[in-house]
Amino acid sequence: MRRGYVQVYTGNGKGKTTAALGLALRAAGARHKVFIAQFIKKRMCSEHRALERFSDFITAKQYGKGLILNRQATALDIAAAQKGLEEARLVMLSRDYDVIILDEANVAVKRGLISVETLLELIKNKPARLELVITGRYADEKIIEAADLVTEMKEIKHYSNKGVKARVGIEK
């Protein structure tokens, strides 16, 4: 790649992580190396088994202690997220990767696990050729301003509102 940009996928609709994983797959197909840091999440899902097949090009790590939507963040949640952001920073500085995806980093900022200033500093110090993708609801206005591309996923209709649970291979 000649120049990398900062992409943000946000909003209350389904598809933010899916879009980022699609980009990771496309990048791997072009023989680009991808590092995925997943914040908050700790459960292994179908996408992790699929990503293992591309381990020559894609590295995915989780830095979470589980969903925090309905509970207070703990010191362990904060430590895990901060460790993830620090590892992503070191990966970025190594210049060994072409794409870095910070999955659910926007939520980590919103819930106080990492600071918006630290994330902005990462954006500011991004090597010119690196593509940086940040996902999650609640993207801070400062992150949106710093980004080159922002996509908002907007929920229009979702079958979960009719009681449909997350399905293996589709939502998990």
Please characterize this protein's 3D structure.
With 172 residues, this protein is α/β, with parallel strands linked by helices. The protein has one domain: Rossmann fold. 36% of the residues lie in helices and 18% in strands. The relative contact order is 0.25. The mean pLDDT is 92.
Percent of residues in helices comes to: 25-40%
CATH superfamily annotation:
P-loop containing nucleotide triphosphate hydrolases
Helices and strands, in order, run as EHEHEHEHHEHE
Strand content: 15-25%
- The spatial strand order of the largest sheet comes to 3-2-4-5-1-6
Q: Report Rg.
A: 15 Å
CATH topology: Rossmann fold
Spans of at least 5 consecutive residues with low confidence: none
Largest sheet: 6 strands, parallel
The number of helical elements comes to 6
* Structural class assignment: alpha/beta
What is the average of the pLDDT values? 92
The CATH class name reads Alpha Beta
Shape: globular
Tell me the span between the first and last alpha carbons. Answer: 31 Å
Beta strands, count: 6
CATH architecture label name: 3-Layer(aba) Sandwich
Whole-number total of structural domains: 1
